[in-house]
User: Fold this.
Amino acid sequence: MFRGVKEDIQSVFDRDPAARNWLEVLLNYPGLHAVLMHRMNHKLWLWNLKTLARWLSQFSRWLTGIEIHPGATIGRRFFIDHGMGVVIGETAEIGDDVTIYQGVTLGGTSWKKGKRHPTLEDGVIVGAGAKVLGPFTVGRNARIGSNAVVTKEVPEAATVVGIPGRIVKQRGEKVLPFSDEQKAIAEKMGFDAYGVSQMPDPTAHAIKALMEHIHAQDERMNSMCKALRRLDASYQGKEIPELCDEDFESIEESDRSANSGG
Assistant:
């Protein structure tokens, strides 16, 4: 038991450079308080003292701002950084050396009894505000980005971001990169293609889809013009105006004004 407590305290030093000494950690880290209290509550839950375990877990929630159901299974060296707003459901299973940040929810999507909450394998990191919802597994050493919403299985060593969660890296390699042609179109329109792969969002996906659709239309129009010239040598297709930086200056100014509150 004391070995486990020592490991939990040491995990704070290993993963938070702000930690200075043992007394400070013991007194001022609500994530550590919540984990230590949960370990006691979980034993009570297993001893079938469920009402007492639930009551003590509610006291821990009041004290720390972190809600961990006493039925949740948590491995060694679990670290909750900052912690406020963290919710961990009854059937959640967490492996060793897992780190989660404030505002994370390990929740369920069903009212049926049984396994409803996710399983986080060893070494998983879940960023601030992320929601991992459902009875699936997040593989070893996976990374869940801040504010992501994940509702399906995540493979080992993958990085997931966005709403809904999408895998953008696996074992350090980018997933589904843009082609050279797509990159060229994006650069011409003043749009950062890597912004989509690093942090997908509905607006970015919509812009990417429009870019691809416009490019396909341009290709089709070019083919039609070539066919018309073969049929009629006198045919002159109207030149399509090229895009230039000035076309997007007003949009950039509007974005800057919106971001500054103007």
User: Anything to note?
Assistant: Residues 181-259 form one domain.
